[in-house]
What does this fold into?
Amino acid sequence: MPQKKLKVSQELRAYFLPQGFVIEEINPESEEILLRWEERFKEDKYKALFHLAFKERYNWFSPALEYLYQVAYLVIEKLTQQPDIELVRENVELSLSDDEFYNLREKVPFAIGMEYVDNGWLDHLIGELLAVYRAEIKDFEGTVARYFAEYNSNINVVGRVFFHLVETGEDQYPFAFMATYTTKPVKSKRAMHTPLKNALREFEGDEKKLLALISTVIKAAHKSSFISQLMESGELFSPIKITVDEAHTILKELEIYEEAGIRCRVPNWWRKKNNSINLSIKVGDKQPSKVGLDAIMDFSPMLNIGDETLTKKELEALLVMGEGLIQYKGKWVEIDKKRLNEVLEVFNRVRDHVNDANLSLGDAMRMELNIRESMNIFDNDIEVTMNHGKWYREMLEKFRDPSKIEEVSTVPSFEATLRTYQERGYQWLNYMSELGLGACLADDMGLGKTVQIIAFLEYIRVQFGGKVLLILPASLIGNWQREIEKFAPEMKYQILHRSDAKTSQSLEISESAFLCITTYGMAVRMTSIKEQKWDYLILDEAQAIKNPGTKQTKAVKSIPAKMRIAMTGTPIENNLGDLWSLFDFLNHGLLGTAKEFTNFTKNLSFDGLGYAKLRKIIQPFILRRLKTDKSIIADLPEKLEINSYTTLSKRQVTLYKKLIKEIEEKLIEAEGIERKGLVLSSIMKFKQICNHPDQYLGREDYKPDHSGKFENLREICETVREKRERVLVFTQFREMTEPISEYLQSIFGKEGFVLHGGTPVKKRNEMVEKFNGESYVPFMVLSLKAGGVGLNLTAANHVIHFDRWWNPAVENQATDRAFRIGQRKDVMVHKFVTKGTIEEKINSMIEEKQKLSGDILQEAGEQWITEYSNDELMEIFSLGGGV
It folds into this structure.
């Protein structure tokens, strides 16, 4: 069937989610064929996928859809390979072997939700596809073969005949051959195997049915003189003992039999090539003398038969023996002298290469991608594998399972108790540091990446000292300050950012500070950062360097450091170029040059095992745990509340200071109800400035870079988008709902909903139904009063309080729109607090319960603030924290 050609580049993009996959179109310029399939997926995604697998691959397949296509194709292939399918029809059963499940897991592409694809996820998908077939064949009046032929004339349903080859252990006739066929006893839903000779009795007098049964054998006999002779002699209908040469003939002709529609069962060592002679490269038996990707590894070529190593002399001895199947050390081995000579030639060439070259740890890891190219082996008939030596194998095992790493205790000055998985993260970071390798801590949002890094840095500070640079988005500076002061109060740090700089000298790197914290923007501008020799360079929200061509990415990568660490909740996105850029920062050269990596990834969709190779090379450097992991989720609260600190932009700072001056003058003369009104209106104005200058000024531009909260909103929602989750954003200001919604639409590339007091009840109900439905509606912006009660929005598992009501009861009610019965995920609650402003000060007072109880606060709302003296009010209103 010819490949469909489309005029424009476009995709139906697939996402893997816990509840199944979803499909959406990502290019608005769709041709008719793309629109048709998109509509079919909307109607019934499993039925659409099943029928898509009957078609040739389209060039608009995304990697994830290509993978789903391969799963559905496998289902069709396994159905058509069931010899009893015509007999059992809709009662057919379908199961995958452990090897088949393993291969499917290995082929999962780098796409959103790939971490959810496990045996259970695949089993559910296969079950849904099988249900589509069962429903359709039940109502189909023709044969099963005709059903499949109607969708694709090239699909052949296997016949009912089986060939069996087994070992007997006898000397003269070491093998036995038998033909069987499937039949279904009366009143049984399951078919059974019976010797082919029984067919002569079952179809006695009905030559037409007998010929139909053995039609596949007749077809094979046209190409195989061996099968032709067995038919003519009648031996085919009874079990027979055969010689080694006859068994070898059968094994070599398997493709002929299977193409004819005969199922063949032969010894596993032939199918898996366990007993074929192959070449392996053993790497890393001894620990290298130095650390890092440049560490020199020992490596040597080896000849093998299955798991057993051959010496060169033993291989040469095999060349003296005859050809065909030969028993060697109790195992059957196929001897092909021409191929053996080729293997020996390659072995000698690789051995000479070993003597002339050094192999680094980085080279060894790159060999996982293409060992043939690395060793200049271009004969595809020779099987070549990589064999991990003792040290290399133990190192990789520790990467995969941090619980095997020798424990390093946290230092006494670290004032926190790590959860079990956080403890393992801490041990893993120490191990990576010991090896001198770059590391990506990629735990899910809310699992505490920051506290793990602080535990690691405090250990480094106490044990070794040194100089650390942390680069992050400006909105996270406040979060890190508070976490450091809380968990490692003895750690001396310095903020290299204009918002914290009291003088120009404040931006000079302090010799006494162990940790320097700066932003991505400052990393571009400050030349002194590149001149300093850093022991550790850490990136928070490391997806900021995913584009290798930007000035920011180039600047960050040019900073010298002995070890590099990346923190990100979204380490791998659909664009594999992003992955290359991350690893180019962490371990330069591991994935080759950008051009080499692009060439490798070109055919990944059609070679699923390429994803397995890529995953194998990057896996040691990424530690990722998920909230959906049962071993993690059992150790987490169902609702995780986080104060997300934001900073004021220059424009916000100017307006805030101006308002402080105005209020100070008015407070001197104001009394009674007038003073109370002044205080409350001032609080409202400060909140507006913290939200966005345009809200305070009554303008409609709402440029994102004019507001720290908008920047913070972007960082959180980009992660939500990549995980294809959903978010509720609450604000107490109705006029903020539309600007926030418009900004979120630009982040998600999709429309969401806005709900406020003016939303009609009927429309409100429609919004709730659609938001909780299967179609992806990524966000809903709600005014706190209108959306804080009476709604069930459990499709969301992120809640953002954009501005604070300062009433725990009201905020909890709003949060409970998502955190309620029916919610299946942990709920992440992000409470925006603008650093150094009234928001931060009042938030601290609430948390510390200074001067008032929770009950008074819940009843009084913001009225209690009016009771403070003028001096106390000005202290609350004033800018602090270096703003």
Notes: The radius of gyration is 34 Å. Residues 372 and 379 are 9 Å apart (CA to CA).
